[in-house]
Design a protein that fits this description.
Elements: E1 4-8, H1 13-24, E2 28-33, E3 41-43, H2 49-56, E4 61-64, H3 73-91, E5 94-99, H4 122-139, E6 144-149, E7 152-154, H5 164-172, E8 177-180, E9 186-187, E10 189-191, H6 192-204, E11 212-214, E12 221-222, H7 223-234, E13 240-243, H8 245-252, H9 256-260, H10 277-283, H11 291-305
Parallel strand pairs: 1-2, 1-4, 2-3, 4-5, 5-6, 6-11, 7-10, 8-13
Antiparallel strand pairs: 9-12
């Protein structure tokens, strides 16, 4: 039986972390991306059927960590998922999807996996469609699939995130570190190595198939608490601040990435808390990095990368 674990989008932040976790656990790995290199790398375009089949060939487990550009989710994510599924199906592999929380839309309680897909904005609907396509393929017997969901992530390599350049890169450069949203609302944040560990656990456990799981996380923090930890780890006296809706709208006039955040501002103006009880009960005990340690490691990575 094959023990080949294939990581799609292997040069992105989550994909890189998954490759590292798989390697640490002794699995045979194929790292797939358009710019892959090294002895375990494969260059492939998984937006095409031939590319997806070549990427997944011979795999026991495929980790889908690839995604379109943030502003192109609605236009491209569903079709990417359909094509990716053809590759997984042709290989007879299991699928682990690196997912997020957008499909739930605005919430008024801690998020559990039984919440309806209530998002109405384009990005949330796109993520709901992706999840529905994958779970439908599982129900139809085309693939065996599971989804691992994480909140806003940070960690070594975490550049394409609201916690990367605005918080960590700014702090190590001595600039103002800015938290997107209300500084005093609790917010679950996910540490990249913990996200990877959760996804690989799903890849190792076939009983995970057929549903979504919230990946294990440390307890939520407020923006004010998180920035205080970043300030302590960075040393010196970096300034910290919140970025509210009005400033987001203003900056968004000139910055398309910041402008995109307005669509899901409901994730930033109220409590945004993940309940990971189901994963812990099914697969525990789990390893979760304390936030203070995770922040310190992330500051150090951004300092070396500066």
């Amino acid at each position: 039986m094959s023990d080949l674990h294939v990581v799609l989008g292997a040069t992105g932040a989550i994909g890189t972390a998954v490759v590292a976790e798989l390697t640490a656990r002794g699995h045979r790995v194929r790292a797939v991306s358009r710019g892959a290199s090294g002895p375990h790398g494969l260059r492939a375009d998984i937006t095409t059927t031939d590319g997806a089949k070549a990427a997944c060939a011979g795999a026991a487990v495929v980790y889908q960590c690839a995604q379109p550009a943030y502003g192109r989710w609605a236009a491209e994510f569903p079709d990417l998922t359909r094509t990716m599924l053809t590759g997984v199906e042709a290989a007879g592999a299991r699928l682990v999807m690196a997912d997020n929380l957008y499909m739930y839309g605005p919430v008024d309680r801690p998020m559990t996996e039984d919440l309806p897909y209530a998002a109405t904005a384009p990005k949330g609907r796109a993520r709901a469609t992706v999840a529905e396509l994958i779970l439908a393929a599982h129900r139809d017997g085309r693939v065996r699939a599971t989804l691992g969901r994480a909140s806003d992530y940070y960690g070594p390599g975490g550049m394409n995130t609201v916690l990367g350049p605005p918080v960590f890169a700014a702090a190590v450069a001595g600039k103002t570190a800015r938290w997107m949203g209300d500084l005093d609302q609790p917010h679950t944040v996910s540490y990249l190595p913990d996200v990877a560990a959760g996804l690989v656990t799903l890849g190792e456990r076939p009983e995970a198939d057929g549903r979504a799981w919230h990946l294990p996380v440390d307890p939520p923090v407020t923006g004010r608490e998180f920035l205080a930890r970043v300030r302590a780890a960075a040393g010196g006296t970096p300034k910290t601040a919140g970025l509210g809706r009005g400033m987001q709208r203003l900056i968004g006039l000139f910055n398309p990435v910041v402008r995109e955040l307005g669509e899901t501002w409901y994730q930033r103006d109220r409590a945004w808390v993940v309940d990971d009880t189901a994963f812990r009960d099914a697969f525990g005990p789990v390893r979760v990095t304390p936030t203070a340690d995770a922040v310190a490691a992330t500051v150090e990575w951004f300092r070396r990368a500066a």
